[in-house]
From TrEMBL, chain A:
It is found in: Cytoplasm, Cytosol; Cytoplasmic vesicle, COPII-coated vesicle membrane; Endoplasmic reticulum membrane. Residues 874-958 form the Sec23/Sec24 beta-sandwich domain. This is Protein transport protein Sec24B isoform X4. InterPro entries: ADF-H/Gelsolin-like_dom_sf (IPR029006), Beta-sandwich_Sec23_24 (IPR012990), Gelsolin-like_dom (IPR007123), Gelsolin-like_dom_sf (IPR036180), Sec23/24_helical_dom (IPR006900), Sec23/24_helical_dom_sf (IPR036175), Sec23/24_trunk_dom (IPR006896), SEC23_SEC24_subfamily (IPR050550). Pfam families: Gelsolin, Sec23_BS, Sec23_helical, Sec23_trunk, zf-Sec23_Sec24. Residues 225-234, 339-353 have a biased composition (Polar residues). It comes from Panthera pardus. GO terms for molecular function: SNARE binding; zinc ion binding. Residues 388-400 have a biased composition (Pro residues).
From TrEMBL, chain B:
InterPro entries: Cornichon, Cornichon_conserved. One of its GO terms (biological process) is vesicle-mediated transport. One of its GO terms (cellular component) is membrane. The chain crosses the membrane at residues 7-29. Belongs to the cornichon family. It is a multi-pass membrane protein. This is Protein cornichon homolog 3 isoform X6. It is found in: Membrane. Keywords: Membrane, Transmembrane, Transmembrane helix. PROSITE patterns: CORNICHON (PS01340).
Amino acid sequence: MSAPAESPHPAASARIPPKLGGAAASGAAAPAGPGPAPHQQNGPAQNQMHVPSGYGLHPQNYIAPSGHYPQGPGKMTSLPLDSQCGDYYSGLYIVPTQNVVTPNTANQQPGAQQMYGRGPPAPHIVGSTPGPFQGAASSASHLHTSASQPYSPFVNHYSSPAMYSANSSVASQGFPSTCGHYAMSTVSNAAYPSVSYPSLPAGDPYGQQMFTSQNAPTVRPVRDNSFSGHSTAISHSSPLPPPPSHQYHQQQSLSGCSTLSWSASGLPSTQDNLLRNHSGSLATANSNPTNTVADSLSCPVMQNVQPLKSSPVVSSVLSGASSTRTPPAANRPVEPVASVTQPSELLQQKGVDSSSTTSSASPVPNSYDALEGGSYRDMLSSSASSPAPDPAPEPDPAPASAPTAPQPSKMAKPFGYGYPTLQPGYQNATAPLNSGVPPSSPVYSGFQQYAQYPGMNQLSSSLGGLSLQSSPQPESLRPVNLTQERNILPMTPVWAPVPNLNLDLKKLNCSPDSFRCTLTNIPQTQALLNKAKLPLGLLLHPFRDLTQLPVITSNTIVRCRSCRTYINPFVSFIDQRRWKCNLCYRVNDVPEEFMYNPLTRSYGEPHKRPEVQNSTVEFIASSDYMLRPPQPAVYLFVLDVSHNAVEAGYLTILCQSLLENLDKLPGDSRTRIGFMTFDSTIHFYNLQEGLSQPQMLIVSDIDDVFLPTPDSLLVNLYESKELIKDLLNALPNMFTNTRETHSALGPALQAAFKLMSPTGGRVSVFQTQLPSLGAGLLQSREDPNQRSSTKVVQHLGPATDFYKKLALDCSGQQTAVDLFLLSSQYSDLASLACMSKYSAGCIYYYPSFHYTHNPSQAEKLQKDLKRYLTRKIGFEAVMRIRCTKGLSMHTFHGNFFVRSTDLLSLANINPDAGFAVQLSIEENLTDTSLVCFQTALLYTSSKGERRIRVHTLCLPVVSSLADVYAGVDVQAAICLLANMAVDRSISSSLSDARDALVNAVVDSLSAYGSTVSNLQHSALIAPSSLKLFPLYVLALLKQKAFRTGTSTRLDDRVYAMCQIKCQPLVHLMKMIHPNLYRIDRLTDEGAIHVNDRVVPQPPLQKLSAEKLTREGAFLMDCGSVFYIWIGKSCDNNFIEDVLGYPNFASIPQKMTHLPELDTLSSERARSFITWLRDNRPLSPILHVVKDESPAKTEFFQHLIEDRTEAAFSYYEFLLHIQQQICK
Amino acid sequence: MAFTFAAFCYMLSLVLCAALIFFAIWHIIAFDELRTDFKSPIDQCNPVHARERLRNIERICFLLRKLVLPEYSIHSLFCIMFLCAQEWLTLGLNVPLLFYHFWRYFHCPADSSELAYDPPAVMNADTLSYCQKEAWCKLAFYLLSFFYYLYCTCDVCVFEPV
């Protein structure tokens, strides 16, 4: 690969320069337009850049480069246009690529541009690098670094993953040095493009990471440049040309000033990058992109990246420039797939991020990383959707081109306005590029290169602001004729769209896994929002497990004095002593302590502090934040031991799990634990230290419950461990002969409340039947004949407010109640769930649980308990969500109690809890270009520390309807709609809720058709960003919670509703729209590497029986359940290799495990399933379903695109919508 | 011929209307209390405050709930009186509100013994602002009707047709 690549370089380079110039020019022109200017004014982030006094210097430098650029552009300007590009390229290249793919390609191109930019400085390097790369395939990254000699020192930093990890917590210690690194890295990057291809196949994660990090640095400079440019010109758009110069400056001078500017934006991102790289293949992909477009193109990893953002828009604009990029295309040739998509911007961002990370030294890869970088978001999202926890960057290399291609399409939607046009060009270009990659880099001189970068960035940012104006149609706005598009579902998981921000902000932004908005472009006015007919809201996953999280210990937590916002990356520093709040615009003083940066140990750089470098941070709160000592971890288990419960046999499993995990219960030395059991009486257990054995105390007065010995029922876990173990060993057999069938749940809960009142904590309630005694007793309300009624579904609301009141009391005493309902018959979950809903607990439901008759449920309980007992927990928490003045929140969804209009009271917070908030626009946002949302979660950790976790999300404001549509995050929108529909079903009726869902599609599509799209109304047209909307809504209508006409037990329905309300987005999406894969032909094509495992990445299949063939085996991932469907004529080799049975007939009916066979296909299938399983709160159980077994109805009900007796097929649904629209 | 049944109705409604105005004002104050949490932000995180606040909310909601029936029944009484007094215009003015009250009363979630003002629900910014608006509108309506009744009382009693 390397050899060909090199040869092309020269030629390519020759072409490239002009194009680049053109791109830069176009970019500059675009910014000049109205769009950019407004942004800057309002945007807090922009201010940051300006602030540093030292920056002034940079601008000057920039100017010179910019001059050059304009010249270039003048000639090339026309190129950017879609038509021209497309024609030009198409003519030259035969790039058959499809529309979908195009976005990706566009991205790739940008990346290529970046590469080139970098390349120029280190043209020599390029030549040398290839060699190393090739060698490196496995350990490539290191080699690469070495290849670029000057850089090598830097490289070392990046290359060693260990280094990163070490850094992780602290964020930005090494900034100053980083700058140097960056410069270095840029060079290396240049080299990369050519080299990268060879390395790709090897797919060493590390090597890629290295690359990315290196690249990232380069990228950063670009951003910085752009920023400086901004400062000079005041408008964001302007930055484009200048940025190049900036890079140089930074690299060359590495002066403190330049570093400062970087640090602000870059550090966080870098961390993210690092994290990402480590964490998952996706992450790696991102990083790779940053490094070099070519890399990304060549590497599957890159494909992953694409989704990211494809910073597409900008890149598209650049596309004019992109012609220059064609060289990158060369890279592509290597890899056939267009996956390359990653936009240059993305790359840059990534690069920046990575660099920053390195500097910050927080390698914390995981989710965090994703959060920070805009581009990362995609990655993150992807990771979220797929268990991407793994840090291995490697995955990317391996990735098959095929998968990537699909991803890009999705990714592209949100972002790149410009992309669509560019894409065609790019694709074509790519084909030619095969040879040409290298050229680009050689051609450019350092400055020019930089200029290109900035241009890209600027363009993207400007586009974001301007939106469609400059580029005819962003990919996300590409009209899709829904009724004619047969394969609407992309082949790869859908990523979260990346907000159309400038690169700095993008990389700083919160990960979409933690924080998503249904509209990534916020409409300026409520009127505009009403016109769009789309829901506006946030989806939060605030307490997510993060592998990397900057934790800040500081005496003074800097907050706005009027709105109490925590300082965040999107505030602007007016000067070194003052900062302007980005939510209320108040100017605040920077406290003296904040002037000192503990990471760099330097003074006078407040904008480099980790708080300002990371959008997700955690503060350790000072004593100001607690008026009583932090509460200890207190756990109380309330267990049903009536006949029914003993018969079901859950006690054995629970006690076993508790015994195993007793030492892993989160808590410090003060941890306390207690047990209660109940049937028609309530039994307490005295476990006071010093007793020889547990003492059971029975209270039979259930009308007036009292605590027999209040002091010794909750005991210290460590002091009484032996007694606790004795009790747990004895419990399962204590009630085996009970004949008591009544259940006095209400009184038991009252007793538990009394017991917990002094401390607060967590109550886990295990219930197996309808409570039949004392307060809170319930009657059966379900009429089995109504289960499949198509008309009215009653009893979705609680029958009594006893449980609600109890929950509120508990919430007031900082006690959460978690409910485990294990019942074989109706138990009125609608009423019982209230005890958890309002006390911030969680609900688990195991229908027809029996430890021997239903082993899969027993296994599920066991796994869930393991997670439940050992997962992180926060006590006495409150969460406050703030947003920029003008926006207001109403209607929260999730499990909590709303204490004042923006304050959620959470007695407990767990990592599996998701929340949703609906927003409205109260004042016009015309005088701002950015809005920010901040979630602050104050909680007591299990170690007794008071901590505050802060997430900040920044989104652009747009004024045109088209931009609003371009920025739709369809998954977030569907999750918010599902939440709203649940509320509607309970407060009104199920049929109302269903109508509302259908109307949501009809309204938004007809609004789009009548305002944005100019096409004829004969067809059902949706913007590409919304193309999955009807499919998802149909999926919702067929979901257990909302379906009618299919027999659904009331408890199942209510449980599904509870799930919708409190699951985080990633998990909820799987529940709504399962993923279907064909697994009998898994190959390593496009596979990713996770923790030294090769994980195949089969393409997604649409959920229709037409995709099922008798010869195949399919895996359906429904979030909490996996089904493997085996076709009748499935290949015997597969059955034997994977399932361990000789033929189809011998497969047992109930099979819940895949045997560990020593065959390649078995290994692939298992590694794929394990990968899917990772990071799920509810460990999925696996069902092997034979084609003819009765269980197949379970499987087939998830094929939501097919027609059922009571519901439309997808096509019919589309026709129905079309009819409604035409009315 | 001054003192007709109609005149009696108007005088009685005048008095009761004053009561309704007080109810409406109380509602407005109560919702305002629910909406604002004056404690300092740090204090809000204090568990003790959390408890107080929660009790406060529950107490207010309890009172609000207690006031629903009296208010609705007083207003229904108006309508019945005016119906008997054959004051069609006045009745016509009151009927829309009467229907609204019926709708509010019977349109509560199924299976719930609660009326409106359920603490978790009422704290919703959406619901809260709706309730507040409703209270303001009612206040305006009752105030206007107060003066209207005053006028009518005079009209019926003093300016009797010759």
